[in-house]
Amino acid sequence: MQDIYFPSADGETTIHACIWKPEGAVRGVVQIIHGMAEYAERYAPFAKYLNAHGFLVCADDHLGHGKSVKSADDLGWFNKQRSADIVIADIRTLNLEVKKQTEGLPYFILGHSMGSFFCRKYISLYGGEFDGAVIMGSGFKSRITLNSALFLVKLNALFCGWRNRSKLIKNLAFGSYNKKFKPVRTENDWLSENPENVDAYEADGLCGVPFTNNGYAVLFGIIKQACSYKTVKAVPENLPVYFVAGADDPVGDYGKGVLKAKDKFVKAGVKDVSITLYENSRHEILNDNCKERVYEDVLKFINGRIGKRDD
């Protein structure tokens, strides 16, 4: 793995990113957009699997995540402007840098969880440059729900500040996620059917750190953008899009939200939209008991779209 660093669009922070290169010839590129309260290096096993099949893999640590923080206090804090656009711009910087290195090879993008919503926004802006997009661990939320969430965040920030880590907002956002899985061992059992993955997540100091009000403002803001008709309609009609999620993932409303998001793409005119829901699997399908099937299915999607996209 190669570590690279570049200036963030916030004008203050240095972004850390990872590049995993195959030993032999490079057939294509997969750029990963990681989720909330985690970081790029967690995708190393999946990246190495793709490396073995000839793909270069890259991923950045978003602002407020991983090694793109100045101190632990900045975990869960994005930028002073509370702007998702700055995160998008950092993803773009890595995208353009890797494109220079790979000289026009097939290029795919994958976003997981929070990263899936950034990915949905990203392909509405730059989808014409990709050979396919994988939307992983995603879902759909109504404008009313998201506006209410943003109002609560702003209200809490008014009294407690943008760096406050509100237990109330965390409980409202994620407090119901464990209900289906009772009795539970931890507050993160909803992440995975595999207890070893849950334990590894909980033991990792860069995972699961509660978001600040600033973080929630960006999170709910990007979900709102991603779920809007304007964003979906801007996705190129000829971009292959593959939704994958656990059938027991509360983020995707146990499959219903994923199907709704997929249907929005179809109704917007995107021609090649497919979906796989993994039975008995929860949120982190790249680390859950179904991971081998997910690896294979994503690779099959990628291999099946190389050279197939209409211009």
Structure explained in plain terms:
With 311 residues, the chain is α/β, with parallel strands linked by helices. It has helices spanning 44-52, 84-102, 114-126, 143-160, 167-174, 195-203, 213-227, 229-233, 256-267, 291-305; strands spanning 2-7, 14-20, 28-33, 55-60, 107-112, 132-136, 241-246, 273-278. The protein has an eight-stranded mixed β-sheet with strand order 1-2-4-3-5-6-7-8, with helices on both faces. Strand 1 (2-7) and strand 2 form a beta hairpin. Helix 4 (143-160) runs antiparallel to helix 7.
Q: What portion of the residues fall into strands of 2 or more residues? A: 15-25%
Rg from Cα: 18 Å
The outline comes out as: globular
Q: How far from one another are the termini? A: 33 Å
Number of strands: 8
How would a textbook summarize the main sheet?
Answer: 8 strands, mixed
Q: Specify the number of helices.
A: 10
Q: Given the helix and strand composition, which structural class is it?
A: alpha/beta
Q: What is the string of helix and strand elements?
A: EEEHEHEHEHHHHHEHEH
